[in-house]
Amino acid sequence: MCRTRAVLDIVGDKWALLVVRTLRDGPLRFTELKRAIDGISQRMLTVTLRDLERDGLLTRTVFNVMPPHVSYELTPMGLTLREAAAPLLEWSVAHLPAIDAARSDYDGRG
Amino acid sequence: MCRTRAVLDIVGDKWALLVVRTLRDGPLRFTELKRAIDGISQRMLTVTLRDLERDGLLTRTVFNVMPPHVSYELTPMGLTLREAAAPLLEWSVAHLPAIDAARSDYDGRG
DNA sequence: CAGTATCCTCTCGGATACTG
DNA sequence: CAGTATCCGAGAGGATACTG
């Protein structure tokens, strides 16, 4: 099995890249992330954050205060992932209309 | 729902980026792709190629000979995707060891 | 060679309810 | 606030067998 698949599991994750991108400008709290990432469920945000933490891409910092305060921040490696993923995300946004058109065309003939 | 999610559905596909990368140096036949992409099943290669064709990212050319000959080649848009994805794939290869280490470390404490 | 067809399992991920 | 726990349905994707 090609090793590249292991990292495409990160990229292919439904939410991981969006979380990484959302953290580009500095640390955020759980609720702030949830608000920023439209459509993500509480459960999936938790799971995604845990996975990214496990992979060494972000850090989780708990402040023992009331009410609880947890801060998520990209690690240096997480920042390099953000840089590497940026062109792909930009490509995606730029080519979305072209892909929609190609699909309509394809389906119209099929 | 954030529009970026729609494009991550294209890019987040388990095999799509590997197919695009494998076609970077020119057209390949079905069996050549299957051999080059370690671990992909016959079914998933078929499905992935169909999706990429539908999205206008590659072309499928059938030569009516015996035995059958089908050639897959990136479109100009497919080539731009390949360019956009290159940094991420390089990042993947470069950081795999670090991610493995982070996982072992995390699991060792958890 | 380049698929299609079928079956079947397993994981992803949403909804909901509860807690320190 | 920042989670955890539980349940559940849909669909991704692998294995296998067959075909023009």
Helix and strand arrangement:
Two copies of one chain form a homodimer.
Chain A: H1 4-11, H2 16-22, E1 28-29, H3 30-36, H4 42-54, E2 58-63, E3 69-74, H5 76-109
Antiparallel strand pairs in A: 1-3, 2-3
Chain A binds a DNA duplex (20 and 20 nucleotides) through helix 3 and helix 4.
Instruction: Give the termini distance of chain A in whole angstroms.
Output: 34 Å
Order of helices and strands of chain A: HHEHHEEH
The helix/strand class of chain A is alpha+beta
Query: Which segments of chain A are poorly predicted (pLDDT under 50) over 5 or more consecutive residues?
Result: none
Give the domain tally of chain A. Answer: 1
The CATH homologous superfamily of chain A is called: Winged helix-like DNA-binding domain superfamily/Winged helix DNA-binding domain
CATH topology of chain A: the name is Arc Repressor Mutant, subunit A
Most residues in contact, chain pair and counts:
A-B, 47 and 47 residues
Number of helices of chain A: 5
Question: What percent strand of chain A?
Answer: 5-15%
Largest sheet of chain A: 3 strands, antiparallel
Which word captures the global form of chain A?
elongated
Q: Give average pLDDT of chain A, whole number.
A: 92
Strand order of the largest sheet of chain A: 1-3-2
Percent helix of chain A = 55-70%
- The CATH C-level name of chain A is Mainly Alpha
- State the CATH architecture of chain A: Orthogonal Bundle
Could you tell me the number of beta strands of chain A?
3
Q: Provide the gyration radius of chain A in Å.
A: 17 Å
Oligomer: homodimer
Keywords (chains A, B): DNA-binding, Transcription, Transcription regulation
GO molecular function, one term (chains A, B): DNA binding
Domain HTH hxlR-type (chains A, B): 2-100
Organism (chains A, B): Amycolatopsis vastitatis
